[in-house]
Amino acid sequence: MARRGWVGTLSTHALLALATLVAVFPILYAFQVSTLTFKEVFLFPPKVAPGHAFLENLAQAWERVGLGRLLLNSSLIALAVALGKICLSVMAAFAFTYFRDFPGKGVCFVIILITHMLPLPVRIVPTFQMMETFGWVNSYQALTIPFFASATGTLLFRQFFLTMPPALSEAARIDGAGPLGFLIRILLPLSANNLTALFMVEFLYMWNEYLWPLIITNSNDMRVVQVGIKMLVATDAQAEWNVIMAGVVAAMVPPLVVLLLLQRSFVRSISLGQEK
Amino acid sequence: MEGRFPNRMLPYALLFPSLAVVVVFLIAPAVQSLRLAFYEVSPFTGRGLFVGLSNFRVLLGSDIYRHSLEITLLVAAGIVVAGMTVSLGVAVLASQPLRGLGLYRVAILWPYALSPAVAGTIWALLFDPSTGPATLTIRALTGLSPNWMMNGAYAVWVVIVAASWKMLGFNVVFFLAGLQAVPAELREAAHVDGAGAARVFWRITFPILSPITFFLFVMNSLYAFFELFGLIDVMTQGGPGGATDILIYRLYQDAFISARWGMGSAQSILLFVMVGILTALQFRFAGRRVFYG
Asked: Which of A80, A128, A275, B277 has the smallest number of Cβ neighbours within 10 A?
């Protein structure tokens, strides 16, 4: 490698700092605006120090679109979908890896993989009609159950199970453990990292979902927070950015907290794993 | 293989929930999409009338739909070319041995965790005509201050910038992983042979990165086609004057605002064709591991 002088290092740092600024500034600015009063948003030169109006803005947003209920709904469906996907994909991956080959195994595998080829937009009209037939429009079932299958999760756990030594299940079998006992008592504790990682990804995915909740819910008590942001933007003639950004912060922070909390246990379980 | 359980029925029972969800909520509706695409459905009675290929003919002949397709391709091209180029540049910088890299990487990944609706709202704020920092900065630098969101030619670029910004971290993470796979000896050998940094990059690093680049091309295209609904709905609602009316927004408008189920389903099928092409390309090239042409 060519020796780079301090000039090279410094300019690399400068460019990376610029990229970081581009990535982070819009988010930090959103936080900043959420703390300002309506008048302060339009000050020139702009106010750089955080303002004191965050709680008032949040209260405004809370009242206008019923933010509390929206946050509750988003949390419930993100939690349900993340857990549902984990359960179903662990079960499927276990079936694919820990049993003698069974007829139809290949077909089953392809059917689950097909999920990747069928994103919601290619089946949205009939799925909506099906919800009408089931009487599921505007329900938690419609917001969660159609999302429960996970090709990503199934592949993830299948790959992980395949790296386990066969002696593990052999030993469990000799000790008289059934397949489900082995899954629950041995395999799942060993999968803690993958479980956490998938939970983070799927919770975030469902929390951020927009199109399906928009069309399948039609009353304010079933709306989710992403749609709430749109409602905040739409209610304003002159955009009250301070109130809108308070809503945006409310939509951004909960998944961030989940990620940070889980990341700690994620990192800890990795380091525990390495100590053995 | 050793260590496998002998149960015959249990694997089916374990697979049943996943299969049931996929068949009922994914495959059956997708097949139904295909069927509906050949019908014209009355919004009032819900009755369908078989019309053959008429929906497709109407769609592909309509200026609105063709315009929507063009806009989608423009947005996809913008995200792929501009977004991925910047991401590659950032990844090259972040692959240098430097202090504090972890911090840069986490910071750059942050926007990827935001929802499309949140990202769109934040960028609408940045380009607010009277108070947006982006508007003010561009005015200070160039003297230009159009109403960004009210002018179609500009609005579509604001959308591209916002959408690329959200994908920056995702692209950087994959490019970084690819860059770490480039053998250092190879680059050093080229240096010894007198190749400059640019030449080393284009002749060695970039070809080795090609599978990652291709994977990201597919992911970014799928993102442009399927994930931008929330961003568009919050920022522009397809406007002004249809300037940001991407395919998925058009589908939503036709199917769920105008209740034209058959027309909506035909659009779903055309979208499926695009997923199919992109997925096929990925399988076609992902198998190849030849980097050197």
From this structure: A275
Residues of A in contact with B252 (CB under 8 A): 211, 215
C-alpha distance from B41 to closest chain A C-alpha (Å): 12
Q: What is the pLDDT of residue B82?
A: 93
The C-alpha of B170 sits at a distance from chain A's nearest C-alpha, in angstroms, of: 12
Distance between CA atoms of A195 and B291, rounded to whole angstroms? 35
State which residues of chain B have pLDDT below 50: 289-293
Q: Is residue B50 part of a domain?
A: no
The answer to the question of residue A177 being in a domain is yes
Contact across the interface for B251 and A121, Cβ inside 8 Å: yes
Q: Does A47 reach chain B within 8 Å, measured CB to CB? A: no
> Which neighbouring-strand residues pair with B5?
A99
Is residue A168 in some structural domain? yes
Which of B1, B2, B12, B21 best tests the A interface by mutation, with the highest count of A CBs <10 A?
A: B21
Nearest to B108 among A20, A129, A178 (CB): A20
Residue that is written with structure tokens 């590659």 in the block: B88
A230 vs B1, B10, B117: nearest CB: B117
A1 with B187: Cβ contact below 8 A: yes
Sole residue written with tokens 């740092």: A13
CA distance B174 to chain A (A): 16
**Regions in chain A scoring below 70 on pLDDT:** 1-4, 235-237, 266-276
Range of the domain at A260: 40-275
For B5-9, the CB contacts below 8 A with 24+ separation are B5/A98, B5/A99, B5/A100, B5/A169, B5/A173, B5/A178, B5/A179, B5/A182, B6/A99, B6/A100, B7/A99, B7/A179, B8/A102
Q: Which two tokens stand for residue B77?
A: 């091209």
Count up the domains in chain B and report the number: 1
Q: What is residue B189's predicted lDDT score, i.e. its pLDDT?
A: 86
Spell out which residues of chain A touch residue B191, defining contact as CB-CB under 8 Å: 1-2
pLDDT at res. B180: 85
pTM of the model as a whole: 0.89
B117-172 confidence digits (pLDDT tens)? 999 999 999 998 888 889 888 888 888 878 888 888 899 999 999 999 999 999 99
Let me know if residue B15 belongs to a domain.
no
What per-residue confidence (pLDDT) applies to B12? 95
- What pLDDT is recorded for position A2? 45
Look at residue B127 in the predicted model and tell me its pLDDT: 92
Confirm whether A62 is domain-assigned: yes
A154 touches chain B (CB under 8 A): yes
Domains identified in chain A, total number: 1
Q: Is residue B55 part of a domain?
A: no
What is the spatial distance between Cα B19 and Cα B24, in angstroms, rounded to a whole number? 8
CA distance B169 to chain A (A): 8
- Chain B touched by A75 (CB under 8 Å): no
Q: How many CA atoms lie within 13 A of A59 on its CB side?
A: 5
